[in-house]
Fold this protein.
Amino acid sequence: MHHVVLDQWSRRASPLHRRDPRSKIIPLLIFLVVLATAHRLLPAISAGLFAMLCTALLWARVPLADVLARACLVLPFTLVFAGVSWIAGDPARAEALVMKSYLSALAVLLVVSTTPMPLLLRGIELLGAPRFLLMVTQFLYRYLFVISEEAQHMRKAAVSRGGSFRAAAGALAVLFARSYKQAGEIHNAMLARGFQGRFRPLSAPHFHAADAAFLVCASSAPVILRIALERFV
Amino acid sequence: MAALRWHDSQNRDTLETKVHIPDGFLSTPVWAALDMAGAPAVAVIARRAQRTFDEGKVPLLGVMGAFVFAAQMINFPVGPGTSGHLVGGALLAYTLGPAAASVVLTAIVAIQALVFQDGGILALGANVLNMAVLGVLAGYLPYHFWGRTRARRAAIFAGGALSVLISAVMALSELLLSGVRMPGGVLGISVGLFAVSALAEGAITLAVIGALERIQPEFIRQPAAGRSYALGAVAIAAVLLVTGGVLLTSTSPDGIEKLGQARTLLSTPFSGYGIAGLGSGWLPKAGAGLLGLGLVYGVCLMIGRRR
């Protein structure tokens, strides 16, 4: 499964991997807003932001070509709309759609490939998102592989029964019942290990001075780039 | 994201109705407004789900989210050479309750944005509102009113269809409102495809609920008894009317004014958003707005009395 790769990248070692998740989430949001609100000189700003992301990816020692290719996941959808806009006589919008959606996906990939998902979700929680929601998300991510494997079996079962509508519905109902049962077992196992309704990470994230410095630099870089380009070009 | 994507898997076309808008598509007022609306909505729903589901049940919600993800692998034949898969909003609402279903779908939308590059981060507010809030609520609505009556099966079907239709049409409206060009033909085709996949979702939801009832009927939550047919019909009509209206106004932002100008068809004392006798300025506009609200409130009261 392709997101296993992302999990492996996120557990490598680099200065960027070591930063507190909060010091990456906030610059990501600022980067996305700077990009989303840009209209004038968009190609120049996009080129600058692209160079910035590539530098960061090299610094993070994740395979650059693979990440660039993975960000193309957004393109099939974008290209449809870009094509329609182009035909409708709005080539500027077509270009903007492609540049903005690709760069946004790349920026998200940079953060996700340098932060393990449990730590990233913990960072989002520490920034004020509802804890209940984030706990559900943590469990969802953790059991995605397990249930997907189960679904492969059910898919095979449905196809062997002729692949009819009824067979597929039956397979899905069994998958539902099995997932439900599995959730009960997981809960019992967690209770047996002293689960009291909240996760206790082995290493709580600490916000160091280096994180603060990184936060300031990474947040201001896209803003400065855009102001400089709009002022002097 | 892929609003509508036909692709080959096992020599079949799969009809996908994913409505995850990526970043870069929505204009700033649209994504900012929807983020501002989405954040408190999610906070309220998370709190409500937490109240009805003690924290020990958190693993259940997470695993059910993984189930909805994995359920996409199982294909349902929905037409000659075409298959669809479960989207799941309505099914989750019938089994976990609407608030918990919203939380699970919010988690799904977030994981899809982060891990699968399917949907944007700034567009998270839009995607969460479309799928996890409005989709789930609209999907639960028919079941809420008719889940205990003879029309139960129809309600389950309608809920599945409504959940997909509402999310898709809302996403489409947000894109149009942001200025994404969509000529009439393309728009018509997309709405048509959305309608087909909405019907498919209704049929899949109904079939899976039926199969679940045979295996373990206690999985399905029963709505409270004693709700009227008429109120349900009014509620669903309102949802459809609002959704249709949003789509119409986003295709041509002057649509309402055009409607106001078509006096032979429809004439109200409020045309031009003002009360004719009060001159112009902010006062008549506010007055017309308040009067309109009062009228809607009065109609709701009258319907409420009749029960």
